[in-house]
Amino acid sequence: MTNTELTVDHRTRVAAQRRERTRARLLESALQVFAEKGPEAAVIDDVIALAGMARGSFYNYFRTNEELLAGVAGALSDELLRLIDPVVQLHADPAARVACGARLLLHAVRGYPLLGAFLSRLKLPVADGQLIGVAFLARDLDAGIAQQRFAPMLVRVAIDLVTGTLLCAAQSQARETLPANYPEAVVHAVLLGLGIPADEAARLVALPLPKIVLPDNSILNRTAAADRP
C-alpha cells in the first residue's frame, strides 16, 4: 500500500469513527429525552439542544422522530441481548428460557433506572416493533407452545401476555419502591398465565441468575455518566 493509500485509509477510518461518536451522542441524548417525555413526543429539538449539535448535522443521522426512537430501542436491545440471551440459551426448556430472560430484564430495569424510565414510556405497538428482544421472546414462546410446555394458545397471545406484563412491571419499578423479589413475583405470575403449574413456576423463578453488569461503554452507562454533575 502506498503512502497516499495509507493516508486515504487513515482519513476514512477517522471520519467513520467521528461519525459513530456523533451518532452515539445523539442516541444518548435521545435516550434521556425519550425517558422523560415518552416516544410520542416531538423530541428532535430537545435532542439537538442536549447534544449541542446543529440541526443540519442531526439530519445526517436521523430523519424522523421514529427513526431516532428505533435507534435508541435498537441500541438498548443489542446491549441487553448480548448479556441476556447467552444465559437464556443455557437452558433447553422453553419455560426456563422465558423465566430467566424475563427476570434478567426486570433486574436490569432495577439496576439501571434510565432503562426503566425508557421502557415505562413505551406503548405496546411501539415496543413490539422496536425492541429486538421481542423476536427472541417469540422464539421461546413458540417453542414452548409447540412442545406443549405452555398451554395451547396463539403465539401472538403469549407474546402480548408476556410483553404487556413486563412493560407494566418496568413502569412500576421505575415509579415505585418495590420489594427485592418483585421481578420473581411478576415472572411467577407470567408463568401461571402461560399454563405452568404453581410449584413448577416457583422452581423456575428460583433458578440462579448472573448479575447484569453492562460495560462502561454501553449507552446506559455513557448516558448516566454524562448526566452526572
UniProtKB/TrEMBL annotation:
Keywords: DNA-binding, Transcription, Transcription regulation. This is TetR/AcrR family transcriptional regulator. Pfam families: TetR_N. GO terms for molecular function: DNA-binding transcription factor activity; transcription cis-regulatory region binding. Residues 43-62 bind DNA. PROSITE patterns: HTH_TETR_2 (PS50977). It comes from the Bacteria. InterPro entries: Homeodomain-like_sf, HTH-type_TetR-like_transc_reg, HTH_TetR. The keyword Transcription applies. Residues 20-80 form the HTH tetR-type domain.
